[in-house]
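This section describes the prediction task in plain terms. A model, or a person checking by hand, is given the sequence of a single protein chain and must write out its three-dimensional structure as a string of tokens. No templates, partner chains or ligands are provided. The sample shown here is typical of the held-out split.
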Amino acid sequence: MNPFVAGYRKFRKEVFPKHAARYQALAAQQNPKTLFITCADSRVMPSMITQTQPGELFQCRVVGSLIPAHGNPPGGVTSAIEYAVMVLNVENIVVCGHSDCGAMRAFLHPEKLEGLKAVASWIEHADSAIAVAKEQYQHLEGDEFLAALTKENIISQLQHLRTHPCVATRLRKGTLRIFGWYYDIGEGTVDQYDPILESFRSE
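The expected answer:
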């Protein structure tokens, strides 16, 4: 038997009946207020971290929480941003990186990318972050450097996000807010980027 069938049956018997009215309301439309862009890592669960219900988050899961800057060939991330901003009219976008990120760790061990051409090409969208990290955090090693690199990547992806015309326009109008989060898996904590202080602070 498919191992997920048991989970589905529990959902159908115990979970769905308790929230049937909500699911029925969502069946014809969605009205999320937030686009949540985060890594495809199985340990990162946006709805659990934010304690949100179905219909509240429009999610984009992608390796490394990477966002190609405007001008790159359009793909899944670009289309998710465009749809969320221009069709769903979200009011917030969260870019969430996390501890022990495999995409970021690949920079420390490039030999692990051998034979992974698609992955190697994709994480080039974090090149600016690795350049800054190598310059600014030479004194750090191991997990400390990885955390610093991941946070720099979040800042870099926020910069990429701002290059998208639909985002830039809404930011200028004041009808959209963007946030950078660093989620520590082992601690269950979130640090949010403060653009005024240019640093991350605990929430």
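For orientation: Residues 142-162 form the longest helix (21 residues).
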